[in-house]
Design brief:
Helices cover about 30% and strands about 25% of the residues. It has about 325 residues and is α/β, with parallel strands linked by helices. The protein has two domains: about 5-125 and about 270-325, Quinone Oxidoreductase, Chain A, domain 1 (Alpha-Beta Complex), CATH 3.90.180.10; about 140-265, 3-Layer(aba) Sandwich (Rossmann fold), CATH 3.40.50.720. The strands form three sheets. Strands 3, 4, 5, 6, 7, 14 and 15 form a seven-stranded mixed β-sheet that branches. It has a six-stranded parallel β-sheet with strand order 10-9-8-11-12-13, sandwiched between helices. A two-stranded antiparallel ribbon has the order 1-2. Helix 7 links the parallel strand 12 and strand 13 (about 260-265). Helix 2 (about 115-135) packs across helix 3 and helix 2 packs across helix 9 (about 275-290). The longest helix is centred in the middle third of the chain and has 21 residues, at about 115-135. The relative contact order is 0.15. It binds NADPH dihydro-nicotinamide-adenine-dinucleotide phosphate.
C-alpha cells in the first residue's frame, strides 16, 4: 500500500502524519517511482521548522529531497528511462513517501555496482560536495582547507574527496568519536570545536598562514571564526546553518580579514541544467565506484520512523548518512 509521511504544519518532528495515498499517474514528461531508499538531510529540517519555506510554499506538504528507486511507469514523451530502471534524484520536496511522481529529466540512472541505499544517500550530499570543491572554491593539490561538521553527511564525503584530490583537509567535529571518524575519512587533523578554539588550532597547524578556503555549514556559531582562519584572499564558502542563521555578516569583515571572497551557494542552482546534473552525477558515481569516496550509511530507519530519524540528525547524534527505507 502506498503511503507518505506528511508534514501537517511547520514545527518540530511531531508534525508528521502517516497517510495512505493513491499511487499517482504520470503526466507528460513524468515518471512514477517506487522508492527503495530515501536520504534524510538537514535541509528537510530547515523546511519543516521554518528556517526555509517548504517546497511549494505551504503545509501540509511531503518533504524530503533525495531518493532512489525503481521506475514503475512513464508518461508521454519520456525517453531517457523505462519501467524497471534503477534511478536516483535530488529535488526539493516530495521524497518522504513510498511512491512519487517526478519529472523524468531530474533522474539519473544508478550505475551497476552502486546499490540503491548508496545512491539515495549520495545524491544531495555527494553532489553538494562535488560542486563545493570544484566550483565554489576549486580545491587543488597542495591546498589546505577547513571543513566544519567533518563527521556529518556532507563532511565525510568532503574529507575523502579532498584527500583523493591531494588537498590537505582539516576538520572540526563535536566529539572525540566524531573527530576519530573524520580522521579515518580523509581529514589530516580534526579539531573538537566543542572543547578547543578552532581559530587558535588552525593558526598553530598552518603556522599562522591560515587556510585557502573554509567550507562552513554550521553558520552562526562558526562563521566569525571561519573568517579568521582564512589566508589572505581566502574563500569563505557558507553553505548551511545547522547552528542557526548568520544574521550579522558585514562586507567590511572580508576586507578586515585579508581581502577575502565569500559565497553562499545552493546545490539546486548548480544542477538546474540537465547537463550540469549529468556531469556532476557522473563525477560523483565515478569517485564512489573508484572507492575514493565511501558513502557511509550509519543510520537506517523505516520511513514511518521519520520523526526519530530527524530527531537524531537535529540533535547532533548522527555521523555520515541517514536513510529511510519504505
Ligand atoms: P550533518 O550530518 O552535517 O549534520 C549537521 C551537523 O552540524 C551535526 O551533526 C553537527 O556536527 C553540526 N552542528 C554544529 N552545531 C550544530 C547545532 N547547533 N545543531 C545541530 N547540528 C550542529 O547534516 P547534512 O550532511 O545533512 O548537512 C550538512 C550541512 O550542509 C547542513 O547545514 C545543510 O543544510 C548543508 N547543505 C547545504 C547545501 C547547499 O547546497 N547549500 C546542500 C546540502 C547540505 P558536530 O556535532 O560534529 O558539530
Amino acid at each position: 500500500m502506498a503511503y507518505a509521511m506528511i508534514a501537517q504544519n511547520t514545527g518540530n518532528s511531531s508534525v508528521y502524519k502517516k497517510e495512505h495515498i493513491e499511487v499517482p499517474k504520470p503526466k507528460k514528461g513524468e515518471v512514477v517511482l517506487r522508492h527503495t531508499a530515501i536520504g534524510v538531510n538537514f535541509i528537510d529540517i530547515y523546511q519543516r521548522s521554518g528556517v526555509y519555506p517548504p517546497p511549494g510554499g505551504e503545509f501540509p506538504v511531503i518533504l524530503g529531497c533525495e531518493g532512489a528507486g525503481v521506475v514503475q511507469s512513464i508518461g508521454a514523451g519520456v525517453t531517457g528511462v523505462r519501467p524497471g530502471d534503477r534511478v536516483a534524484y535530488t529535488i526539493q520536496g516530495g521524497a518522504y513517501t513510498s511512491h512519487r511522481v517526478i519529472a523524468a529529466d531530474r533522474l539519473v540512472k544508478v550505475p551497476s555496482g552502486v546499490d540503491d541505499e548508496t545512491a539515495a544517500a549520495a545524491m544531495l550530499k555527494g553532489l553538494t560536495a562535488q560542486y563545493l570543491i570544484h566550483d565554489c572554491y576549486k580545491a587543488k593539490a597542495g591546498d589546505t582547507v577547513l571543513v566544519h561538521a567533518a563527521a556529518g553527511g556532507v563532511g565525510l564525503i568532503l574529507g575523502q574527496w579532498l584527500k583523493a584530490k591531494g588537498v590537505t583537509a582539516i576538520g572540526t567535529a563535536g566529539s572525540k568519536e566524531k573527530c576519530a571518524l573524520a580522521r579515518r575519512n580523509g581529514f589530516s587533523k580534526v579539531i573538537d570545536y566543542t572543547k578547543q578554539d578552532f581559530v587558535d588550532e588552525i593558526r598553530k597547524i598552518t603556522k599562522g598562514q591560515g587556510v585557502a578556503a573554509v567550507y562552513d555549514s554550521v553558520g552562526k556559531s562558526t562563521y566569525p571564526g571561519s573568517l579568521k582562519c582564512l589566508s589572505q584572499f581566502g574563500t569563505f564558502v557558507s553553505f548551511g546553518q545547522s547552528s542557526g542563521i548568520i544574521e550579522d555578516f558585514k562586507l567590511a569583515d572580508l576586507a578586515a580579514n585579508g581581502s577575502l571572497f565569500a559565497t553562499r551557494p545552493m546545490l539546486f542552482h548548480y544542477i538546474a541544467e540537465r547537463k550540469e546534473l549529468e556531469k556532476r552525477a557522473r563525477q560523483l558515481f565515478k569517485v564512489i565506484k573508484d572507492k575514493d569516496v565511501k558513502i557511509q550509511i550509519n543510520q537506517r530507519f523505516e520511513l514511518s520512523n521519520l520523526k526519530q530519524a530527524q530527531d537524531v540528525l537535529e540533535s547532533r547524534k548522527t555521523t555520515g548518512q541517514t536513510v529511510l527505507i519504505p
